[in-house]
């Protein structure tokens, strides 16, 4: 491609070859290890023919073809991002202004139409959540939702859990109390990365669901208090749950999680399950708590939330590493019954990617 220049190391090129001696034809997995690549490998010759680059490697004299477009798509000769808290291009952060643009689809349509399912999953990937309407009003229907994109992740709550008022509940989620926006199960390592909440009854007054973009909140905290953002992303918080017999779950992770290159990859926020924070030095603890308080205030800001009331047969799906969910309090009159289950984003992303590939291929 004229005008485009990029550099590649010989060892990287050999390790990432797609010839039949390097990759299995069925699944693309490597057939070699790095030990099979000479430490002194070098490029001895390059030949370009159209969109194919043929490279000869020394000292083995192997000749391997590479697709120019593949090389450009996987180029690593790029400016390094120095800013902490950056997010990938596929993610769109949002606040209450997105209330009229919730990724929503009809259950029957996404079940029957691959393009409709792909479009809905695309919204979930971008925005971190999505709604489905028109589903069956029957126990266990939430499993059909999980089957659209992945697999149920079983926990100590079972394959699913009931969300309705209980006597002597093991978790505050099973009461009529309002709940602050939170991510679920931060005491697990790894956390379930998808939550599905499916409505079966909802005649109680109140009980509206709310969602908040944790990435947007983290970015806002960074703008207002860069040091606070640094503290919440640099030190681990601790979370714990021991509300059921035979269960004692603990984790140690930062509230704002960054990848080694500074990318924002996760938010954990759940005051109910927070354990004593002991990994912050004395000199930073006051400022850490100030940042913790401010993050909570940002999360509670109505300008950051989207509120909706689920009707029977409706559900919503959230990326539990990013989007916080909440519930307004509801009265004892009427009834409110939701069923919930957990799944994982890797299955959702895999299904989305496969559907997109199939649609593109069919259009060619």
Order of adjacent strands in the largest pleated sheet: 4-5-15-8-17-6
CATH architecture of the largest domain: 4-Layer Sandwich
What's the domain count?
Answer: 2
How much is the average pLDDT?
93
- Would you list the SSEs in sequence order as H and E? HEEEHEHHEHEEEEHHEEEEHEEEEH
Radius of gyration: 24 Å
Helix content: 25-40%
The total beta strand count reads: 17
Return the structural class.
alpha+beta
Strand content: 15-25%
**What is the CATH topology assignment of the largest domain?**
Double-stranded beta-helix
Structure keywords:
NE0471 N-terminal domain-like; 2 domains; 364 residues; six-stranded mixed sheet; Double-stranded beta-helix
Please, could you describe this protein's structure?
Pfam families: TauD. It comes from Roseovarius phycicola. The chain has 364 residues and is an alpha+beta fold. It folds into 2 domains: 10-73, NE0471 N-terminal domain-like; 96-355, Double-stranded beta-helix, CATH 3.60.130.10. The protein is built from 9 helices and 17 strands. Strands 4-5-15-8-17-6 form a 6-stranded mixed beta sheet.
């Amino acid at each position: 491609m004229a005008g485009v220049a990029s550099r590649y190391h010989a060892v990287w090129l050999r390790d990432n070859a797609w010839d039949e001696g390097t990759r299995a034809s069925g699944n693309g997995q490597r057939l070699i290890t790095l030990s099979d690549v000479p430490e002194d490998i070098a490029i001895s010759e390059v030949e370009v023919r159209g969109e194919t680059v043929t490279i000869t490697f020394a000292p083995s004299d192997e000749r391997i073809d590479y697709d120019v477009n593949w090389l450009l798509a996987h180029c690593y000769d790029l400016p390094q991002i120095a800013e902490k808290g950056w997010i990938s291009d596929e993610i769109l952060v949002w606040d209450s202004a997105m209330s009229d643009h919730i990724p929503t689809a009809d259950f029957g349509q996404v079940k029957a139409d691959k393009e409709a399912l792909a479009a809905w999953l695309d919204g979930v990937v971008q925005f971190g959540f999505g709604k489905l309407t028109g589903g069956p009003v029957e126990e266990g229907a939430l499993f059909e939702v999980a089957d659209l994109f992945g697999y149920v992740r079983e926990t100590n709550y079972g394959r699913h859990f009931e969300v309705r008022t209980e006597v002597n509940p093991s978790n505050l989620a099973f009461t009529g109390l309002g709940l602050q926006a939170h991510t679920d199960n931060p005491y697990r390592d790894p956390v379930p990365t998808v939550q599905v909440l499916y409505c079966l009854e909802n005649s109680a007054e109140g009980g509206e669901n709310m969602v908040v973009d944790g990435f947007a909140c983290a970015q806002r905290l960074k703008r207002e208090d860069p040091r606070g953002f640094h503290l919440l992303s640099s030190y681990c918080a601790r979370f714990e749950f021991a509300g059921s017999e035979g269960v004692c779950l603990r984790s140690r992770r930062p509230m704002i999680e960054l990848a080694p290159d500074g990318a924002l990859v996760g938010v954990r926020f759940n005051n109910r399950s927070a354990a004593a924070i002991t990994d912050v030095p004395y000199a930073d603890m006051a400022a850490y708590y100030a940042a913790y308080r401010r993050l909570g205030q940002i999360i509670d800001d109505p300008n950051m939330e989207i509120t909706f009331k689920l009707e029977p047969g409706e559900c919503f799906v959230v990326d539990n590493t990013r989007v916080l969910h909440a519930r307004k309090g509801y009265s004892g009159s009427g009834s409110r019954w939701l069923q919930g289950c957990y799944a994982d984003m890797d299955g959702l992303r895999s299904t989305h990617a496969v559907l997109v590939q199939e649609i593109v291929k069919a259009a060619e």
